[in-house]
Specification:
Elements (H helix, E strand, L loop, with lengths): L2 H14 L1 H24 L18 H13 L4 E5 L5 H12 L5 E4 L9 H5 L12 E4 L3 E2 L5 E2 L2 H10 L4 E5 L12 H14 L4 E5 L18 E5 L13 E5 L1 H11 L16 H30 L3 E3 L10 E5 L3 H13 L21 E4 L12 E5 L5 E5 L4 H15 L2
Parallel strand pairs: 2-3, 2-6, 6-7, 7-8
Antiparallel strand pairs: 1-9, 4-5, 8-9, 10-11, 11-14, 12-13, 13-14
């Protein structure tokens, strides 16, 4: 497609998205107020930006950051740490914190994301399976419009015939062609599980979901949730880290896995300081709004060309990801190459598929990001497998996302 045609298509798509953009503006304003109120209530000061060394006793920056997250999420407690290396690490800490030998974990949104497979099932790697934790999963029911629903009949059967320690659900779509799961659906799950088995915990993978809605899983009764700081909640500023938030006693158990059972969150220094974590959190509602607007623009523009996309139509987005079924490996690689070319960092690099650790297929990733692997920055990735769906996420500014949509349309030469 020539440049003028691409621009015309994108501008038309933008105009048709005005009402959806207005809704996202309202959500961002609400969440910005929530974040600002938490900063004020916790009297955040310049001294909280400085790091500590050694044991990190009485690290005011660390402890205040944890309270900020707990207040914003309306949770009893939270762990926020630069020493958590990824979302997978945060989820692993959550799982190992609360599960014990002979417990059973039930995933109700299908198999967890690829990088959790070894955490749960691998033999000889120190997985949950190695420690005697049983696991089963239930697939989502996918409606004709690709909206997922929980299979409550199958969940009830599991809860009434087995002692389930924890029910696990992931909000984002992972590498599947379906809509993400809303917080309202999480509420329905929590209410359903607790009515049948009050002692069963409901734990949530919240990656890609923070600030997408006005409420979070902990607002609707989830016992624990976890996520990554180089996704939504870090605002594109946090250079690393993750969080776990929820019930106080459960967060304490997780803290023993982060450090040691004798230490918990009493220790843990970070000499480089916390400024990017506070600043990223403050910017996150606006950054997430930009990413969501870009997500809708990708989906709308490509749907006009006949591609199957999510979200579609008037669907509200429930994560910052857009799925586009491209249909061929060549188109997939060309699309990712175009995203890389329009990136601020490494724009001269050509992404190629490779055997990425933790994944079952070769994966191609385009991410010319300031923070390595930051998926709140504009990026695109996919496993090299049919039906060759590319997953586009992030965008620190809406303007960058708009330029990227236009550039991919030009490169793929429709």
């Amino acid at each position: 497609m020539d440049k003028n045609s691409a621009k015309q298509l994108v501008n038309q798509s933008e105009q048709e998205l005005e009402s959806q953009y207005a809704r996202l503006d309202d959500i961002a304003l609400y969440n910005q107020q929530k974040v600002l109120d938490a900063f004020k209530q916790n009297a955040v000061q310049a001294r909280h930006m400085f790091g500590t060394t050694g044991y990190g006793y009485d690290d005011a920056g660390r402890d205040t950051l944890c309270r900020l997250y707990a207040d914003i999420f309306h949770a009893e407690s939270a762990i926020v740490s630069p020493n958590i290396v990824s979302g997978t690490h945060a989820l692993t800490l959550m799982l190992f914190g609360i599960l014990r030998p002979n417990d059973k974990l039930l995933a109700v949104s299908g198999m967890p994301y690829d990088t959790l497979t070894d955490v749960i099932l691998a033999k000889g790697k120190g997985s949950l399976k190695d420690f005697g934790v049983d696991f089963d999963h239930i697939e989502l029911r996918i409606q004709d419009d690709l909206t997922p629903t929980f299979d409550f009949d199958a969940i009830k059967a599991q809860l009434t015939t087995n002692k389930i320690k924890a029910v696990f659900a992931a909000r984002s779509r992972g590498y599947s062609l379906r809509q993400a799961i809303s917080v309202e659906q999480i509420k329905d799950l929590v209410d359903f599980v607790k009515k049948i088995s009050p002692e069963t915990l409901v734990i949530i993978d919240n990656c890609y979901g923070e600030f997408v809605e006005k409420i979070e899983p902990t607002d609707v009764g989830a016992d624990l949730m976890a996520g990554s700081l180089i996704k939504n909640i870090g605002g594109g500023i946090a250079p690393t880290g993750g969080y776990i938030a929820g019930k106080r006693d459960l967060v304490e158990l997780v803290s023993y896995r982060l450090t040691a059972p004798s230490l918990g969150m009493e220790e843990g220094s970070y000499v480089y300081g916390y400024l990017p974590y506070y600043q990223g959190l403050f910017l996150a509602p606006s950054v997430v709004k930009n990413a969501l607007k870009g997500s809708l623009l990708f989906a709308k523009s490509y749907s006009k060309l006949g591609f199957e996309t999510l979200p579609r139509g008037e669907m509200p987005p429930y994560d910052v990801v857009t799925s586009i079924k491209l249909g061929s490996a060549d188109k997939l690689e060309a699309f990712c190459g175009a995203i890389q070319e329009i990136s601020p960092i490494d724009s001269n690099v050509k992404p190629i598929p490779w055997d990425m650790p933790g994944y079952q297929d070769q994966v191609i990733m385009a991410a010319g990001a300031f923070v390595q692997g930051s998926s709140i920055e504009l990026s695109a990735d996919s496993p090299i497998r049919e039906p060759y769906i590319v997953y586009v996420q992030g965008g620190l500014t809406y303007e960058h996302a708009k330029l990227a949509v236009t550039h991919t349309l030009e490169v793929l030469d429709f």
